[in-house]
Design goal:
Elements (H helix, E strand, L loop, with lengths): L25 E13 L7 E13 L13 E7 L3 E10 L19 E13 L2 E9 L1 E2 L4 E13 L2 E12 L1 H8 L3 H7 L10 E14 L4 E12 L1 H4 L2 H6 L3 E15 L2
Antiparallel strand pairs: 1-2, 1-12, 3-4, 4-5, 5-6, 5-7, 6-8, 8-9, 9-10, 10-11, 11-12
Length: 260
């Protein structure tokens, strides 16, 4: 789904081993992220988002590949091909100031989405990843994201690209894409609509990273999602938004060693 990622962390890639940055107990990576994307799910207006992220790994272990749209991950089971753990994402809200045409539609607060993830590398250059999460605060539904990435490294450059598929249950889709009879009456431009859960979007993500040194790296990426099913048929999307959801992002990371 689109939406948006919470403090992305490094995920598992058994291929790209790199030297420890410093001979210490842990390698900490601090990242600054700048993203432009839809103001809310289904919006055709773009907003800028800036946020920090933090990840860590034991000194001497390889740096792991992470797609820019991965959630914050921490593994409790990991080997050369499989990684399983907990994950979390942040989902932005929908507010009247995002679009004055939303008058009468309920405000949707931001949400946090904790859950579980599974990664599998069938071959060294191909990663499959699945996340299932449950929302709190802004929505109370279950969502899932499935992705496949082809990953290739050329010296200091790492390129990745692959398809995405997002799903949401009835609670999720009705929160972001539904319209109650009262909301329809207050707004006056949309009809009442009660969507069902299922596939909400299909798309792709592509990224390019450059390692300036063992400490510094930069990543640029683009994401595309096409709303489908009941999400695409929502009068909110048809009247005020767009089925096409595009995002661009840039991140700069710095790694350093801590502990002994």
């Amino acid at each position: 789904m689109a939406g948006s990622a919470l403090l992305p962390a490094r995920a598992a890639d058994p291929v790209f081993a790199t030297p420890a940055v410093l001979p210490s107990g842990w390698i900490v990576t601090v990242k600054g992220n700048l993203k432009v994307g839809p103001s809310y799910p289904g919006s055709d207006d773009l907003s800028f988002f800036g946020y920090p992220s933090l990840s860590f790994r034991r000194a001497g272990t390889p740096e792991r590949f992470s797609a820019p749209d991965d959630g914050l991950s921490f593994s409790f089971l990991e080997d050369s091909a499989v990684r399983v753990g907990v994950v979390g994402r942040f989902q932005g809200g929908r507010y009247l100031e995002d679009n004055r045409e939303l008058f009468g539609l309920k405000k949707i607060d931001w949400a946090v989405e904790p859950g579980l993830f599974l990664e599998y590398w069938p071959v060294e250059f191909l990663r499959a990843r699945a996340e299932i999460r449950r929302g709190f605060n802004g929505h109370e539904g279950f969502v899932a994201d499935l992705g496949l990435d082809v990953v290739q490294r050329f010296g200091a450059v790492t390129l990745s690209a692959g398809p995405r598929l997002s799903l949401g249950d009835d609670t999720f889709t009705r929160t972001y894409f539904g319209v109650t009879p009262l909301e329809a009456a207050l707004n006056g431009q949309v009809a009442a609509y009660k969507p069902s859960g299922g596939i909400t979007s299909v798309g792709a993500t592509a990224a390019a990273s450059y390692d300036w040194s063992e400490q510094w790296s930069t990543t640029a990426y683009v994401t595309y999602e096409r709303l489908v099913g009941d999400a695409a048929d929502s009068p909110i999307v048809e009247r005020f938004g767009s089925e096409n959801q595009v995002g661009l992002g840039l991140s700069v990371s710095y790694s350093f060693g801590v502990g002994r």
